[in-house]
Amino acid sequence: MKPNIEFPSNYIERYLTMKKRGINLKTKQKGKSSYKEYTEENLWNDELLDDIYDISKLIIDYAKNNKILKDKSYYGKKIVSIDIETTNFIPKAREGFVNILGLTSLDLRNSSKGNMELLIYQAFNMLRKKDDAPHLLNLAWDFINDSDILIVFNKSFDIKILQTIIDNYNLNYKFPKNIVDMRDYFKNLVALEDYLKEQVGFERIHSEKGHYNEYYKLFKGRGKNGVNKKIDPIGVYNLMDTLTPLFGFLLI
Which end of the chain is more exposed for a tag (fewer CB within 10 A), N or C? Predict the structure, then answer.
């Protein structure tokens, strides 16, 4: 059960929804910020969203036009794919220093009627404090808990760290039983994305793998207090790491 809490200080959350009814595709962006350097008007950098829109449209079109969808294990279900960003010092990360939680939810519960809905959600722990990390789960839990299938890449990292937060802060959360680890199919995300390029021609442009330290440095900001923090491109990077495993799952 999700606690009834106020929106935490120094936090950002943002949503991007894509709904397809028949041939009509509608998109909407929104968000919320209690961090002084960002307002609700500048949470999305449209110049960096091409990757997200491109793969989201591919996912929706694939799910909508797949003639054997009824034979798939995920037919009529809600699939949620999650990814976290932590400090780049792994021992600290495993203690629960989580800065960003992103997820993508593909709702196929009404797929028999030809309706597809893709929700992209993200929460930022802007001060990067360990004691603020539980808010990430508080904000995102309704999405996670409502999933029929939970997708992750490297369950022993993402899920284990989130479980550490749950245990350390006595949160009343239990992950869904049906968790699919895409690392069982691909040795790393680069291999998964090579597969997507081969199968559907998709390739990242604005959120390439291999630049994490550079993106994280921009997110930390300048100086001791982290002035001029940039939520992108690390935010787009995080969301792409929910979208590519989701698409890989649909294809395999």
Answer: N
59, part of any domain:
yes
Using one digit for the tens of pLDDT, what is the confidence trace for 188-202?
999 999 999 999 999
Name the burial class of residue 154, with classes exposed (0-12), middle (13-18) and buried (19+) by CB atoms within 10 angstroms of its CB.
middle
Number of domains in the chain: 1
Q: Which tokens belong to 15?
A: 């949503």
Structure tokens belonging to residue 88: 């780049």
Determine the structural domain holding residue 49 and report its residue range: 18-251
Is 65 part of a structural domain of the chain?
A: yes
pLDDT tens for 131-183 read 999 999 999 999 999 999 999 999 999 999 999 999 999 999 999 999 999 99
DSSP, collapsed to helix, strand or coil, labels residue 250 as helix
Position 2 pLDDT exceeds 70? no
- Residues comprising the chain, all counted: 252
What DSSP state is assigned to residue 124?
E
* CATH code for the domain in which residue 36 is found: 3.30.420
Question: Residue 215 region, left (φ>0) first, then alpha (ψ -120 to 50), else beta?
Answer: alpha
- Whether 152 is in a domain gets the answer yes
Half-sphere exposure of 94 (CA within 13 A, CB side): 5
Q: Is residue 9 part of a domain?
A: no
Angle between helix 234-251 and 189-200 (nearest 10): 60
Distance, CA of 213 to CA of 200 (rounded, Å): 29
d(CA 45, CA 231): 9
16-25, 29-38, 189-198 — which is least confidently predicted? 16-25
31 contacts 12 by C-beta, under 8 angstroms: yes
Residue type, 146: D
Distance CA 35, CA 251 (A): 39
